[in-house]
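Problem 3 from the worked examples.
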Amino acid sequence: MKYNDIASLLEALSERDLAIIESLRVHRALTTILIRRLHFPIGGEPREAGSGKMHATEMAAAVATIRVLTRLESHRLIARLHRRIGGVRAGSSGITWQLGASGERLLRARHGDTARRRYSEPSPAFVAHTLASADLAIQLQELARRGVIELLTLAAEPECWRTFLSAHGARAWLKPDLFAITAGGDFEHHWFIEADNATEHAPVIVRKALQYQQYAASGIHQQEHGLFPIVVWVVPNARRQAAIRAALESEPRLRELVAAGLFQVVTTEEFPRLITGAGQASP
């Protein structure tokens, strides 16, 4: 595709079309249902820029969603993955989408990016984790659209990653799944969010928690914001919740942060209540 073709296509795309493509750039993969929740509001749901018209029912919104996605796919702006979430019975709602070749070129031209990003078929584990992270991000956006919280900042990977100097002076990376700043009343709440699909053993979780402890010890975030974010592991069930809590509480180097309430482990059902009912993070 030549630049003139991209320029013509940009003019032909609607605000919602571009918003869908941009959301796939940010989240890397989204199911049809997640795209529906982001960009195709149902009557009574709050709207946002790029969401298009309101739809009377969820069925009408779902039909409109797949119609638009099929059109974008025909221009190679987006591409469907071979593996469906929920299997064949899930139908169109189980389709997972990522940027297509033309979509990647279009966004590079739009943003002036020179680095090319390759979009090959990712592994099932990568897709499952990516979709879990995207779902949590969309939940935050939905809470904000309903006016339950203010969403001041939301960053996904890799934009939310942090670099710092370890205790030995070496450069280290902290790689949360999401970073968010929310507000309610007179308080801001800062969050590092980990989407947990119960696929990693407890020692891996502890090592990640120790990275957060090292980043907290660097003082970088506190110097800029006056507090350290709450680190939240969002897990699929109560059994996994108990296992992670026990692992974190048994590590002596983490006891200070655990005691301060800066490590939280919640189930997916509890996540919205944590976000909307949070106390002020400790400095």
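Problem 4, a separate protein:
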Amino acid sequence: MTRPQVINAVGFQLCWFACVVGGSAVALPAVSIFLLWHLRQSQKNEWWLIGLLSVGGILLDSVWLNIGLITFADLTLPVIPLWLALLWCAFSATLLHSLRWLTARPALLALAAAVSAPISYFAGSRLGALEISESGYVVIAISWALLMFIAATVWKKVTL
């Protein structure tokens, strides 16, 4: 990995902890700093991928919220908390950098997402950021696999 890719990976992990442990008040400055750094590293046309994937992830998590697969303490809105929306933005900025080797292989990215996404949500639930139903983990695995496969496939076709 190159130095910018390592910084991207470490920066995302710091954003993950800031969002999950610190909530929206900590997530906003952390993700803002990460995305400002990322602005200098971004590739041509990358921001539309970041935007579309972020919106897609926010909508996906909001659907899960509304059907009861995930819940958040003291949340009364039909959309996910700001910290989770910001986490989608930070994650989306990894696909063409620290996760580039996976993004170039859509099927492998889908498999990695099916395994790692439920683990990430489980870790968030253990830290008290959210609660997940038993069936939620299966839905998360399948949904993430599909979303990542679609994102990587679309990116591959657009950039050829």
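Solution to problem 4. The chain is about 75% helix and 0% strand. The mean pLDDT is 94.
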